[in-house]
Amino acid sequence: MRFLKSDGRLIGVLLVLAITQLIGWGTIGLPPIVGRDLAADLGMSLPMVFAGTSTLYVTMGLCARWLARAFARHGARKVMMVGTVVAVPGYVLLYFAHEPMLYFVAWVILGMGGSATLSTGAYIMLNEVAGRQAKSAIGALMLVTGLSGSIFWPTTSFLSGHFGWRGTCLVYAAMLFLVSLPLYAFATPRRAIAKEGGTAPAKQANALSIPRSTFGLVVAAITVNAFVTFGLSAVFIELLRAEGLAPAQAIAFGSMLGVIQVSARGLDFLGGGRWDGITTGLVAGTALPVAMLLLMLSEGATWAVAVFILLYGAGSGAMAVARATIPLVFYDQAEFAKASSMIALPLNLASAISPPVLAGLLTQFGSRGALGLTFVCSCAAVLILVLLGRRRPQVAAAGVV
Q: Which residues have CB under 8 Å from 125's CB, separation 6+?
């Protein structure tokens, strides 16, 4: 790929972010695997356990705007290092949690660390290094990070089976401190701002003037889709079990999801910038309601579950790229960090609300309740993207070849 050949240090940054984002997203995926054990040990309902993840997302969203200044002033490297140090005590506190209060405090701490290290920070770092090549760089990163569930769901199941969920928390704290922190400290540029023509930071003289209504559509499309994909990710194993799969079979099927998501992201990446994030979102978003409708009408047939995972995996995998790159259609490099930080609050709030909502629907009404709501939301996201596609800036449209 041309963007990899254009700057050798970008390969190193991508490798670091691939490892650290895998660890970051993979380690917070405890509830989908050990949720029932957590509920039994802490005397909580399953929806309350998933509310821990919601607490993380709310905290991430609330910290986003404050961190926007830190990213601009100090760069992504320093902010992500501090975020990693902050996150470590969160897992230690989870280890010691014997009551709901301490459990939720731990997720607040993890949210504070995650706001600096998960996704947004990585995209800002790639934007600093890659400039106009940021979309391709983000796509390349997502080829790997999409495997977080496939790698860490079985890993969490294995570790919890040998050390319990509390011991697993300590292992994950050690991974952050001994792997992620040194990588940020010693293997990323101190302050890398991409150069245009080799002389000046990539920054347009005049940022694109985007109407508030258009920004509202960007936020709405990203937020509604995040509600669906983050919520289903949290309850995916339970959803498959509600469809009649045995626990081990549900984990095996669920682990296939990440491979399919990565395959879909790979197709977008191989497109080489021939289409933008809106086009990716429209194509991918259409697959999601089709997948949910199929599963709702199938009465739990194994073949339908397999097709659902294929369609949902492909759609959600490509939509993850779209969520990250749609702002690049409307904002230049100088404005990207600010726009991403503004989007982070509603995105994370939606991500926070969806797991307990879907877990509650799953508990009260079975899989049809959760699938029905996500079907409606997925259709709404596609309609918003259609409207958004008509508002592409002429500069962005001309750049798609």
A: 13, 17, 75, 76, 77, 80, 188, 192
